[in-house]
Amino acid sequence: MTNMTAARATRPTEDLGAQAQRLFxxxxxxxxxxxxxxxxxxxxxxxxxxxxxxxxxxxxxLCERSKGPNGWGRVFGRAIGMxxxxxxxxxxxxxxxxxxxxxxxxxxxxxxxFTVAAVFQAAFWAREIILGAIGHRTASxxxxxEALGSAMSIIRLLVTFAVFAIALIxxxxxxxxxxTGLIAGLGVGGIAIxxxxxxxxxxxFAAIAIIFDRPFRKGDAITFGTSAGSVEAIGVKSTRVRAxxxxxLIIANRLLLDKEIINNTRxxxxxxxxxxxxxxxxxxxxxxxxxDILKEEVExxxxxxxxxxxxxxGASSFDFDIEFDSENAAFQDFFDARHTVALAIIxxxxxxxxxxxxxxxxxxxAAPRGGMIMPYAADPPAAPAPSTIxxxxxxxxxxxxDRSAVDG
Length: 408
Prior knowledge:
- The chain has helices spanning 2-33, 35-65, 72-81, 85-97, 104-137, 146-174, 180-196, 198-213, 253-258, 284-300, 331-352, 396-407; strands spanning 221-224, 227-234, 238-242, 248-252, 261-263, 271-278, 304-313, 318-325, 365-366, 372-373.
- The strands form three sheets. It has a five-stranded antiparallel β-sheet with strand order 4-3-2-1-5. A three-stranded antiparallel β-sheet has the order 6-8-7, covered by helices on one side.
- It has twelve helices and ten strands.
- A hairpin with a 5-residue loop joins strand 3 and strand 4 (248-252).
- It is an alpha+beta fold.
């Protein structure tokens, strides 16, 4: 049993040694019979190698001449600069192998080495172009700093792993290795990792989406859900927003993107809307002139008038709406415009004698028989006028006077 195991262990070494022996013999015979073609092929191959080397230098120069650290010229120049000497050597060798009449053993060896070099070189190029494209897309001062550095580190790691994993699988497949199990293992492992850290990856990809789609930037004033504030930092897992009242709001990136986001910084203006309630004894003529009155006051404040008009009957008022736009999107200018127009309208209403409504209420009390009892006492009935003159009864003093006269 031990002898059989030893024999199986030494058989691959013997096969590899036999293959190397055959390759050496074929190469020796080839050099003896095709030495002139080999010399010419080496000269041509050297020229090809030098040309590729010069092309790599041109790419490096393009990278240096490119404007900005993340321009497309720098991206492609950096990718060209990543071209390896081994790849250029194998390209030159592959191109001249057919001319030199190489034997099958030499040709297959060159083909295998060229495949390995080409696959991994393509992986280097893809990695640099992908990362360069991401850097070009995120080239902004609003996305610089620690947040972008952390995100780019994770993105660089993921891109490198994915690209070189694919390159390794391609190389193994060209070697005749069955890669089905390897692909299945990588797939299962990726699913397991994704399920275990789905919250982290969700926030990470949300951060990447924010960087690429740019719904907002650092310093923008945004409104999301019932909250609002100015963006202070965009992190890998969360975004920090400073509320107008001073507190710092920290919200996960995936939750932030699930909400409707209003970017107030990208507004061209802010629209102001007032509802004016007039007393219900306002005359129709005054209400008919109200549109022109409001328009005059808004334009006198050098703002853009939009519309004004009747909107409904209130409980104790006639309601009118007025809309106008501030000069720009700055909140302070919007606040000042609202204040200025409101005071101008109040002054004009005071001058025109137009009254704003206030809440009024009248209470009626029902009588037992269903009638209405007024909330105040009725006026007392007037006394009837006397038809005859009646003498007033004598006072006690008068009575005593009369008795004295009789006695006398």
